[in-house]
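forwarding from the other thread:

> can someone predict this with iron/sulfur cluster?

sure thing
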Amino acid sequence: MTVAARVVASDPELRHDWSLNEVKALFALPFNDLIFKAQTIHRRYFDPNAVQISTLLSIKTGGCPEDCAYCPQSAAYDTPVKAEKMMEVQTVLADAAKAKAAGASRFCMGAAWREPKDRDLPKVAAMIKGVKEMGLETCVTLGMLKPHQAEMLKEAGLDYYNHNLDTSEAFYGEIITTRTYQDRLDTLENVRKAGISVCCGGIVGLGESEDDRASMLHTLATLPEHPESVPINLLVQVEGTPLHGGGAVDAIDFVRTIAVARVLMPKSHVRLSAGREDMDDATQALCFLAGANSIFYGEKLLTTPNPDTSRDRALFDRLGLKPA
Ligand code: SAM
Ligand code: DTB
Ligand code: SF4
């Protein structure tokens, strides 16, 4: 029996055979019906008042050779982000210690690379090892990975690898021309095969249609194993990127995307990721009701602002949420 078949056999709700039409039909449900369904499923698998806390750090900022139209770190666009060298291990570990003291359970380190060079990896491995030794879960996002690189990161103690599909396969070419959807899927497979948990999601607000959102979630939910973490980012519009100045996303449409992700992948952590700085408390509360149970905590994402920790603590108090 394949891994996927075994999982399905043990739990009929954990499906990997969703049709695209079924996913579109979830998006088309009356809002209350969709939220009720998502919250009901959420309660079956998770404590509804617990939210996992991850903190991000950009260990190598800017100067990226890829042309992702949303990204301030691409060398193709003139943005406020300037290229920097990779951070030193001790500086990263000091930041991780602060994140742990502030209540994070996972520390995610991001690099603006198309793919890591083998000579960069020993330093990243030292960061992973050090963060792990602090008792934090480790996550990195470094671009495309070859099988031997994934194995080396696993060896260093890596728990999660973040690698987003970002949008649907059909819309992908409008957003990124320097790599293909299949490149992304290949890396996800290399990460899985190395025994690392997968963190994979996308962005809402790139100019995609609802069908594109449905198609991206369909791809995620029909992978042989669902990603353990599914980040749903709201586009952070940064001056100089091609997507700056585009239309705002309707908050209800964003919440729907979270709810559909929750219904399709019941056991995954769905992360309300970038874009919270532009959301009011009521919208975030709806996201948690729709099944989001993870956030990025700390005043910076990679290069753009995230809500102040004092605002997040007040939000948790207001909603009776507890960090997990
Ligand atoms: N360079 C690696 C890669 O792209 O795989 C890792 C770092 S990259 C910054 C990680 C993810 O951040 C992207 O896949 C994208 O989903 C998200 N991201 C980047 N810029 C964003 C923005 N302006 N708004 C929302 N999400 C963004
Ligand atoms: C993810 O899905 N979102 C995070 C993390 N994975 C690496 C990154 C958000 C970046 C937002 C833009 C910035 O701060 O540069
Ligand atoms: Fe580079 Fe990642 Fe930004 Fe794309 S999203 S330009 S790969 S840092």
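Strands lie at 50-60, 106-111, 137-141, 160-162, 197-199, 202-204, 229-234, 269-272, 294-296, 322-323. thats all i got for now
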